[in-house]
Amino acid sequence: MSDVPEDVLADILSGLAVKLLLQFRCVSKQWRVLISSDDFIKSHLTQSIETNTNRIIVIKDGDCLYSINLDSLDNAVRLNPPLNLNKQSVFGTTIIGSCNGLLILTNKDKYIFLWNPSTRKYWKSSVCRIPLRVQYVVFGFGYDDAKDDYKVVRLVQFYGKGEESFKSEVSVYSLKSDSWRKISDFPYYLSYESVSGVLANGALHWVVSRKRSRWGDCTSGDLIASFDLRTEEYRLVPQPEYSTKCFYMNVDVLEGRLCVLFKKYSSVFEMWVMEDYGVEKSWTKLISFVDAHVHWFSHMVLPVAYSKSREQVLLLQDYRCFVWYDLTTKRKVKVEIGGMPERFHSHVCLESLVQLIGGVERGGKFQKTETVSCEGGSSFIEFL
Predict the structure, then answer these.
(1) How far apart are CA 308 and CA 306, in angstroms?
(2) Is residue 312 scored above 90 in pLDDT?
(3) Which of 245, 203, 241 is nearest to 222 (CA)?
(4) Which of 122, 177, 309, 341 could be 82's S-S partner, Cβ–Cβ 3.0 to 4.6 Å?
(5) Which residue from 149, 188, 183, 189 is spatially nearest to 169, judged by alpha carbons?
(6) Contact status, residue 198 vs residue 258, Cβ threshold 8 Å
(7) 171 near 179, Cβ under 8 Å?
(8) CA separation (Å) from 287 to 261, 312, 314, 330, 331?
(9) Whole-model pTM?
């Protein structure tokens, strides 16, 4: 295909799966240079986002990670992450989230790992030590398109002197500069422990209140706070109009759109989607059903993805199984997937070619030198 114009070749290749593209780099030097170029990587990523293709579900069960093809939902395939998920830290390891094909994992008190499961490249950075007497430590991860930079946000919250007082400390890690820096304090009280920021429309979101409250107060988490990754400013997001004041609320994301999940004492579960970000009147009630098990936090229902026809929504139920919810018939059908663990958390992740500057490949022999510091401290790996 040496006679094919490069722009035509790029257009053809940009519609292929990442696994094939990684193999096609060996076809010729021209193909390798093209597939590895920033323009092609961005074009392939944009097409995947616009067409909702090349998507996988990454699930975590204890010290194991698995991937499931979102189109086929056939089998869970074991992944080989760049760290031992349970033996790196007393806090254990959690998945913060994903963005543009990059998955981020953290030990909270030691390291963060930015990892592309498709290319097997990863980047490791140390985390500033967590102070004593901490109540909450949460993270968020996303892309700043204005600066073409990936950012990790760490929010640490402390008890204040009074019953309703609290303090916070916020740090932002920039992949481009490979450094942490402190920013202005978070002015709201986090409602839930160990809940990562939900990425939607270039901002991270948490359920919050204006003051510290006791656990069990159903009105404690009644606000949605956002952190804009571009401007690094905090804002409150307008909420849907709901009929009751006594409920438990959480936020999530469905194919890039912010979602609000309500659980009411009357055993009603509702999921609202913000169709036009920041516009209060654009909230649309997508799912609503009554379930005798929907009370407190014993029954969890979380959005995963739309079906191709957009007539169904894939839900994670009770951290035990996936179900299809039919938006017309209002019925749920369990999805049978081979090789699934008994309990798990899930994250939708794109398969992409997005590169990590200085990133290294999982596997092979290497020598590793680490600099543990809050002002950088990434791992540089030299292959033997």
Answers:
(1) 6
(2) yes
(3) 245
(4) 122
(5) 183
(6) yes
(7) no
(8) 9, 10, 12, 8, 11
(9) 0.87
Residue 91 has pLDDT above 80, yes or no: no
On whether the CB atoms of residues 316 and 60 are closer than 8 A, the answer is no
- Residues 6 or more apart whose CB falls under 8 angstroms from that of 8 comprise none
Q: What are phi and psi of 193, to 5 degrees?
A: -80, 140
Kindly give the interhelix angle for 6-13 and 38-51, rounded to the nearest 10 degrees: 40
Q: Give the model confidence (pLDDT) of 149-176 as tens digits.
A: 999 999 988 877 766 678 889 999 999 8
Closest Cα partner for 256 from 322, 221, 205, 208?
A: 205
Which pLDDT value is given to residue 277?
96
Tokens of 149: 């930079």
Phi/psi at 150 (5° precision): -95, 135
At what angle are helices 6-13 and 29-36 packed, to 10 degrees? 60
As to burial, measured by CB atoms within 10 angstroms (0-12 exposed, 13-18 middle, 19+ buried), residue 69 is middle
| Tokens matching residue 249 | 């609320």
Amino acid at residue number 359: G
Tokens linked to 317:
């139920």
Residue 287 backbone dihedrals phi, psi, to 5 degrees:
-135, 140
In one-letter notation, the amino acid at residue 125 is S
Alpha carbon distance 127, 111 (integer Å): 5
Rounded average pLDDT over 313-336: 94
What would you measure as the largest C-alpha separation in the chain, in angstroms? 74
Angle, nearest 10°, between helix axes 29-36 and 38-51?
A: 60
Instruction: Tell me the torsion sign for CA atoms 138, 273, 103, 298.
Output: positive
Residue 72 has pLDDT above 80, yes or no: yes
256 vs 198: CA distance, rounded Å: 10
User: Can you give the pLDDT at residue 174?
Assistant: 92
